[in-house]
Amino acid sequence: MEFNLSAYLKEQKARVDEALERFLPQTSGLEARVVEAARYSLFAGGKRIRPILCIAAHDALKGNSPALYPVACALEMIHTYSLIHDDLPAMDNDDFRRGKPTNHKVFGEGVAILAGDLLLTYAFELIAGAATNGADASLLLEVIGLIAQAAGFRGMIGGQVIDLECENRSDVDLATIEYMHTKKTGALLTASVVSGALLGGAGDKDLERFRRYGHHFGLAFQITDDLLDLIGNFDQMGKSPGSDLQKNKKTYPALMGIEESRRAAEEHVNRAVEAIEVFGADAEPLRAIALYLLERRG
Amino acid sequence: MEFNLSAYLKEQKARVDEALERFLPQTSGLEARVVEAARYSLFAGGKRIRPILCIAAHDALKGNSPALYPVACALEMIHTYSLIHDDLPAMDNDDFRRGKPTNHKVFGEGVAILAGDLLLTYAFELIAGAATNGADASLLLEVIGLIAQAAGFRGMIGGQVIDLECENRSDVDLATIEYMHTKKTGALLTASVVSGALLGGAGDKDLERFRRYGHHFGLAFQITDDLLDLIGNFDQMGKSPGSDLQKNKKTYPALMGIEESRRAAEEHVNRAVEAIEVFGADAEPLRAIALYLLERRG
Prior knowledge:
Two copies of one chain form a homodimer.
Chain A: H1 5-23, H2 32-42, H3 49-60, H4 68-87, E1 96-97, E2 100-101, H5 103-107, H6 109-129, H7 137-151, H8 156-166, H9 174-199, H10 204-231, H11 234-237, H12 243-246, H13 252-256, H14 258-275, H15 284-292
């Protein structure tokens, strides 16, 4: 029977959404506004790629960790916080995200900054709390260290500051762009796969396989994202096509052309798929998700 | 021999500064700018109250935890991140902090937001990493959970959003102010004491004593801070006196008068000191730090 990716993604997304709702329900105290703001962005239609990568890697190893959903949801919270902060006027200054007004447009800049802070902080509380469900404490610390490093200045935050500094400069080369993306989007995507593998019980050799998958997946993801921005439309993207170009963002198509970008995306997808070949049918979701990048429409 | 608080604070601050320098040295990569910004605020003359409370509680129990300095420094990083974000134009809009231009005045708003994010993220990486020094993994997870909760929407972030919402409203009563401060500054101060006690090996009964100390210390700290703002001067505070009043901040002296505020501060200090009486001479630093609040000049 052929693997039905669309049904798989739908089912996993529903499970992640249900867990997110359970982990971060609306509160009623005086601080309700910042929880409302965090939930606004958390439930604004994200595809839950990072949690699903985490779950798929865990399942590829036939794992059974009680910390799986806390960690998967923490990854989505960290991703969401980064979107809220990146959209701020002082950063990318975006008014729309996934077709909806960005957080600061709805709640104001002050609350939007705090909503991002909330999600980042709560992500670590959530993972630490998984110890009470009987998850292995040393493994949880390893996962916290891995995710914090990927989200921190050697990862996502480092990538974002490089992105900020590259804007309005004309001397940015492909190596710098690739370095920036490896950090800005690649690090957390890789950490999603690797943390799932860790929870699934992976040893060093397998961890390296999932790390390689994550690395190539991240680059293919970014290249196809750039292509979508260039040739997609508002319905598919929830933002205006060509908005990267308008903001003088350095993209793959701008630097190496559309055809060469497509070839590069295909190459990275192939290498991602190769990296996890050894897991056979158990890794079918990871394989299908990577191949799907080449047909993305949103 | 009488306890020399000034010498104690000086020595502990030097140790914390040395550890912070070791944990977060300047880097040289493309992301160097955000590390520079984080270090600018981290080394802008903080008194290291939170790390010192953590160390003093740990030492009161004759603890010997290899995680003490990572946790103490993580507390200072979280405190510093909160100052950077609170000073932003969208929040308190402060140009000076401890007599120096605030982070966003030097590095711009975008980098300042990211520098705060960096410190928050790195704090958790630092604690998780202490496992490699042989610290107990379950205890570290408990500390991460405790600190994340104190820094999160039920603590510091919740307090800050309540503060934001109370500005320019005239119907704010003393109970709301106290609730706000318990969260905004009290939660992390209490978590500093309690995490030190946890690392020092405290059982439930002792933890409750340190929690009570932290609670009353936090309130006394806030009241004396409000009094200083009202009657201090720029040299002592590093900011203009009366700036809370100008921003229509609700303070203790504004709500209950200067004399009544002084009495309330004294009462909270006494209760903090009482809470840790059982630890005798080993808790002398904690006792002296609390009593010192009543003579604060900065």
